Known about the structure:
There is one protein chain. This protein is of the alpha/beta class. Helix content is 30%, strand content 25%. It is built from 17 helices and 26 strands. The strands form five sheets. It has a nine-stranded mixed beta sheet, sandwiched between helices. A seven-stranded mixed beta sheet has the order 7-6-5-3-4-8-9, with helices on both faces. Strands 17, 18, 19, 20 and 21 form a five-stranded antiparallel beta sheet that branches. Strand 20 and strand 21 form a beta hairpin. Helix 7 crosses helix 9 (233-240), helix 10 crosses helix 11 (272-284) and helix 11 (272-284) packs parallel to helix 12. The longest helix is centred in the first third of the chain and has 17 residues, at 37-53. It starts with 7 loop residues before the first helix and ends with a helix. The site of adenosine monophosphate (AMP) has 18 residues, from strand 14, strand 20 and strand 21.
Amino acid sequence: MMGTPLTVVDLIERAEKYFPKKEVISRTHTRTECLTYEQIGKRTRSLSSALASLGVKKGDRVGTLAWNHHRHLEVYFAAPSMGAVLHTINIRLSAEHLIYIINHAEDKVLLIDADLLPLVESVKDQLNTVETFIVMSDEKAVPESSIEGLLSYEQIVADGDETYQFARDIEEEDAAGMCYTSATTGKPKGVVYSHRGIVLHSTALSMADTAAISESDSVMPVVPMFHVNAWGMPFVATMLGATQVLPGPRMTPQIIAEMMDKYDVTISAGVPTIWLGLLQELNKGTYDTSSLRAILCGGSAAPKFMIKAFESDFNIPFMHAYGMTETTPLVTLARLKSYQVDLPEEERLEIRSRQGQVVPGLEIKVVKDNGEEVEADGEEMGELLVRGPWIADEYYKDDRTKDAFKDGWLYTGDVVTIDEEGSIKIVDRMGDLIKSGGEWISSVDLENALMAHPAVFEAAVVSVPDPKWQERPVGCVVFKEGKEASEDELKTFLASQFAKWWVPDQVLFMDELPKTSVGKFLKRDLREKIKEQLL
Length: 535
Ligand code: AMP
């Protein structure tokens, strides 16, 4: 067979050539814009030409600090299509981490949303490699800034060459993108995505047995474009010429619901905290969400009650998937097999709330400490290992590579069980599992049960040291607006579902739970926070 390379260039050129009339709807800082793929293609070429005249060469890193909008989408294609590397930077990082990753990645250019300029202004003197700063706003004018020589995105695109020819010397193994993942301790770790990995991952997302993304979809990535490339949504949607609805800066559940309604969104993707917020909004308002065929949920476990609420109250089908920054990210997805569709509702819900089966193209195994595989009985726990063409094989210039990548496998650090259908269930992150009296307790199961209580908005469960049992679970709960429940009521609620020794000894009430920069519960901070309350 021919060994033609799989590159990101093919994705944008396909959209330009076959779907020039299809649209990208983009909420920006001041308005909502609608651009065709023909326009996006020309603007992307102009941007590539501008980057080239700024001295960006093959392999150089082009950093972005931006929300989900069409300009960010253009950089997604302009940088890799000229041989450079798109480096999406998490806008919620601490100044220390921001400086670290920009220097570590050696970004040559930074493209920054106008409202995020202060982030960069405060650290600019400590950035060692950045030569050009470009501000992305709706105007050509450059806003007031302490950054010397700041360029305007709209100006360089207007001055660029919209007929610029994308690079033809790209090998499929070349780097197309990179993203840093926050480690539990220490500095963030960089993951580099190859052109090949991104293209194969896009194909995986469009299979009928996965997310089945197609040209007829209207795709809305709520997950930030700096979190694992918005889970690959912008790449697959462009490849297929699907409509894209980009919800823009500082979106709220109300904005998401309004855009879903107005632009007939068919599939959206995000973490459970986003969907918990949307659920409250849908309960308040009168939105037409009948166009939605799937909400893709991952990043943390999707609570069963949430899946049920979306499906039975709003007729919005849920799709639970699992992945990591290191895996581009799709690894597993929960779908019913054809012989499972007639099972009783509770059993179907149980299957669909698991993280599901590995998608075609990847391999997984679940191993015990001694390296042997666990029984596929849904009971025995082990660490999940993954390998395949869109799984990273190292951290970028980082010694921690040797801890996670061994014998050709990625050690995910996720503790799972696997059942006889090959469906995995995440029990916990390795450090979050609670060992009480020699027995394991899953914080994830307790959290999901607590969040099903009508008064509870969010819940996290962490372990605290215990003189008798080594560790005991403590529940931390945020109530829904105007709702409350007593500690005893919540414990009784859990006691009806779990063995007695699983029920947390204490449930603490909080105004909010600490979260990571991508909306997951930050258990490390929570453990610190509750230390004081428990004394
Ligand atoms: P990140 O690299 O920030 O996307 O985080 C990856 C981690 O998120 C995984 O290693 C899991 O611990 C967790 N995760 C991702 N998807 C799920 C899911 N569907 N259920 C439970 N945990 C998940």
